[in-house]
Here is the input.
Amino acid sequence: MKGLKFIITGLLFGIVMSKSEAVSWYRIQEMFRFQAFHMFGIMGTAVTLGVLAVFLIKRFQLRDVQGERITFQPKEKGIVRYLVGGTIFGLGWALVGSCPGPLFVNLGQGYWPILVAIAGGVLGTYFYGVLRDRLPH
Here is the structure.
């Protein structure tokens, strides 16, 4: 019962992603081809809400579920790491036609071939963990 709120949050996330068509391969391809504003609007809304949430967390010194104050650590300077990581992420997204979150929404909708993409993500994460100490960060 302790994790019920997280399960409910995940279900709500899946419903919102599905109803907004953010899990649609066609919508994602439209975005990468600059043919429709739909996905840009969804992501712009998400970024705006994220900025607002961080502002409110900092302004009111909010706490996490364990009661500890939420803090933000400054990031390292340099743009190359973000360009390389973003390019790899974007290429994967464009090739698969889905971001990591919607992969599981598609699986929940019964699109079993998405298991190939999920397996690729799990393997990529595993190999990153193996190679992390040897990679430039």
